[in-house]
DNA sequence: CAAGGTGTTGCCACCTCTTGCCGGGCAGGT
DNA sequence: ACCTGCCCGGCAAGAGGTGGCAACACCTTG
C-alpha cells in the first residue's frame, strides 16, 4: 500500500535475481552488496540498495542459512514459560540477542524432560546455539545437545558445557542467617523437583548452614515448583513443628502461604516463609514474600553473551561457570519468632 | 554415546546423501521414504529408515523449506510475554500447532508497535503463518502482514483478515450489571492503551451499558496495561467520586488495587474493582479480583486452528470473526455499595 | 511372444543465496 | 608503451532437500 511498484499481487517475494535484473548486475553482486559491504563499489551498492528497496526486497533467511548454517537464530529453552522466574531472563536474553543481530526463539518445556527433548529435536536444527534455562534433561542428554550446537546451561553445572549460575550457597546462607537472627531454631526446607540441579544445591547449602548455626533442619518434598505444589507443601508443613521454612522457589513459597492461610496458619506470626528468585508477583502476594533475589536481568543477557562468544570463536577451551551474586530481599513473610 | 556408529566427531549432521550411500539408493528415494510414505516400496523404505536411524539422520527443516517455503513453523506474536493473559493462549496454541506437525515460535512485542514491526520483519520470512495476539499495529500494517503470510488476529477485527475475538460487549455488560446489582451508581472505566482495539470495544460497551442502566459513567486513562500503569490509575482514581471501577485488564486492576491500598483506600469496602481476562494471579492477589473471564485456553487453539485451515486451503473467501463467550467470575474485589 | 499396464526408482532441474576463483579494466611505476 | 597489481563484477559450484519425468522391471493380457 505505502509501497512503490506493483507489490502485493502474490505471496512470493522478490529474490536477488529480480533485483539483479532490475539493477542490471549479476545476482552475486546483489548478494555481496548486502552481506559484504566494501566488497562492491559504493555507487553500485547504492544503486542496488535503491532498486532493492523499491522492489520491496528482503533477504530470505532460510536460503541465506543453507550454505553455512547461519540462520541468525538462537533458542532459549525454559522449563515453564508461565513461571515469572523466566520473565526478566527471557527479556534480557532477547535484547542481547537482537543487539547482536540474532533472533531469539523462546521454547517452553512444560516442566517435562520429554517435552523438552521433543522441542529441542524440532528447534535445534534451526538455530545456531541454545541456552538451556534450568533444564530437566540428564547431564548426558545435555552433553548430546552441546555436541550438536554451542550450548549454555543456566542454573546448573554440566561437565564440558558452559554455564551461568547464581550463588545458591551464598543466597541460602543469607536466608538462613536472616531466620536465625529472628530467633528461629527449627527450620524446614521445601524441596523442588528431583531433576533440578538447583534444588540439590540449595538443599545442601541449607543443611550446611543450619548445621553451622546450630539450627534444627528438616526437609519436606519433593514438590512441584508451582502454586499447586505449594498447596501440598502447606498440608505437609502443618504436621511439622518448624517455625520457619525456606522454599525451593517463590512459586512454591507463595502456594504454601496460600495453603497455610487457608488452613488457618497466620503468616508470618506463626510461621516465617522465605522463597527463592524474587519473581514477578512475589511482592504483591499476601504477605509480600521475603526471598533470595537472583539478578535475573543479568542472567539472560549473560547467558546469551557467553553463547555469542562460543559462536564467534568455537574454542574447545571450556571456561568456568559464571557465578552471579544473590541477595536477600526482606519483606513481610518473615518475622521474629514469638 | 547411546548411539551406534561414529557420531559426535563433528557438529555437521548426516544428510540424505549419506543415508542414500549407506542404503545403496538414490538421495531422492531417501527423501521420498520420509516425506512421501507409500510412494516408495515398503521394504526399501524400512531399510532406509533403519539406516537413517543408525546414522542418526534428521531431516534438515531449513533445507526442506527451500523449494516451496514449507518450514513447518508458525509464529504467535504477543503484546507482552510477561502478561499472564497470554499463558494459556500460548500453551493451547502451541499444543494445537504441534499436534498438526508444526512448531510454534513465540514472539514478544514488548507492548510496542515498533518492536512488533521489527520482530515480524525478522520472523515472517521463516514461518508459514502468524497469529497476532492483541497486536499494537495499525490496521493497514496488519493487512500488509496478511498479504505476506496467512494471518489470524486475536482480540481485534481487521477487514479482510481472519480473527478470533471474545465477546467484549457481553462481558462488559455482565460486569456493569453486577456492579449495578450491588447498588453502585458512579462507575469509572480505567482505559488501556490507545492502540488496543479491545480497549475501544470495552469502553464503548461500558458507555452503552451504563447508559442503559442509568448509571454515571466516567473514563480515566489511557494507562499502560501493567502493574505500574495501575499505580498511576490509583492516583487518578482518588480524585474521583466513583464507588466502583472496571479496568481494561487484570494487570491494570491489580496495580490499581495495590496503589489504592497503599493510599489508604479499602477494597472492596470503599471501592469495588473489576478486571478483564481472569489471568494467572488474579485469584491470589489481595483481595482476589472479580473479573471478566475469557476462555483463554480455547483462544489460542482456535486461532491456530483457523490458521491451519488457511494454510490447507488458501481460499480468499474470508470468514466472519469467531466470537468466543465471556463470563463474570465473582471474587472478593467487589462488594455492595455502602 | 508382443503390447500395454503398474509400481519403483533414478536422474536432473530447481529453490535462493554464498563464495572461491577468474578475468577485464584501469592506474601507476619504470 | 608495457608490466604489475588492485578493484570490481561475473561465473559456476555448492548447501540439503523436493518433485517431474523417464526408465526399467515385472506382470498381465490378447
UniProtKB/TrEMBL annotation, chains A, B:
Q: Does the record carry DNA-binding as a key word?
A: yes
Query: Which UniProt keyword terms apply here?
Result: DNA-binding, Transcription, Transcription regulation
What does UniProt give as the signal peptide span? none
SUPFAM superfamilies, per database record? lambda repressor-like DNA-binding domains, Periplasmic binding protein-like I
CDD domains (UniProt xref) = HTH_LacI, PBP1_LacI_sugar_binding-like
InterPro entries in UniProt? HTH_LacI (IPR000843), LacI/GalR-like_sensor (IPR046335), Lambda_DNA-bd_dom_sf (IPR010982), Peripla_BP_I (IPR028082)
Q: Which residues form the HTH lacI-type domain?
A: 14-68
Write the protein's name. Answer: LacI family transcriptional regulator
Please tell me the species this chain comes from: Promicromonospora iranensis
Instruction: List the lineage, top down.
Output: Bacteria, Bacillati, Actinomycetota, Actinomycetes, Micrococcales
Amino acid at each position: 500500500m505505502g509501497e512503490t511498484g506493483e507489490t502485493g499481487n502474490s505471496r512470493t517475494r522478490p529474490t536477488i535475481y529480480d533485483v539483479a535484473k532490475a539493477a542490471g548486475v549479476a545476482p552475486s553482486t546483489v548478494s555481496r552488496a548486502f552481506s559484504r559491504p566494501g566488497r562492491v563499489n559504493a555507487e553500485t551498492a547504492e544503486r542496488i540498495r535503491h532498486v532493492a528497496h523499491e522492489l520491496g526486497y528482503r533477504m530470505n533467511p532460510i536460503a541465506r542459512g543453507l550454505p553455512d548454517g547461519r540462520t541468525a537464530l538462537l533458542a532459549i529453552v525454559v522449563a515453564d514459560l508461565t513461571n515469572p522466574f523466566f520473565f526478566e531472563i527471557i527479556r534480557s536474553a532477547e535484547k542481547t540477542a537482537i543487539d547482536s543481530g540474532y533472533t531469539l526463539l523462546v521454547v517452553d518445556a512444560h516442566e517435562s524432560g520429554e517435552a523438552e527433548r521433543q522441542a529441542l529435536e524440532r528447534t535445534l536444527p534451526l538455530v545456531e546455539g541454545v541456552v538451556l534455562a534450568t533444564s530437566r534433561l540428564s547431564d548426558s542428554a545435555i552433553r548430546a545437545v552441546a555436541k550438536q550446537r554451542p550450548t549454555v546451561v543456566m542454573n546448573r553445572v554440566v561437565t564440558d558445557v558452559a554455564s551461568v549460575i547464581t550463588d545458591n550457597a551464598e543466597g541460602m546462607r543469607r536466608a538462613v542467617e536472616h531466620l536465625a537472627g529472628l530467633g528461629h531454631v527449627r527450620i524446614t526446607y521445601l524441596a523442588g523437583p528431583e531433576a533440578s540441579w538447583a534444588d540439590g544445591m540449595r538443599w545442601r547449602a541449607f543443611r550446611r548452614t543450619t548445621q553451622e548455626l546450630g539450627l534444627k533442619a528438616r526437609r519436606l518434598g519433593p514438590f512441584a515448583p508451582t502454586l499447586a505444589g505449594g498447596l501440598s507443601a502447606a498440608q505437609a508443613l502443618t504436621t511439622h513443628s518448624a517455625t520457619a521454612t525456606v522454599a525451593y522457589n517463590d512459586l512454591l513459597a507463595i502456594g504454601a502461604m496460600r495453603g497455610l492461610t487457608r488452613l488457618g496458619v497466620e503468616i508470618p506470626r506463626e510461621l516465617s516463609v522465605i522463597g527463592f528468585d524474587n519473581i514477578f508477583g512475589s511482592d504483591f502476594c499476601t504477605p509480600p514474600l521475603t526471598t533470595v533475589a537472583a539478578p535475573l536481568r543479568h542472567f539472560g543477557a549473560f547467558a546469551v553473551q557467553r553463547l555469542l562468544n562460543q559462536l564467534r570463536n568455537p574454542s574447545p577451551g571450556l571456561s568456568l561457570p559464571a557465578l552471579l551474586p544473590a541477595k536477600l530481599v526482606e519483606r513481610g513473610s518473615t518475622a521474629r519468632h514469638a
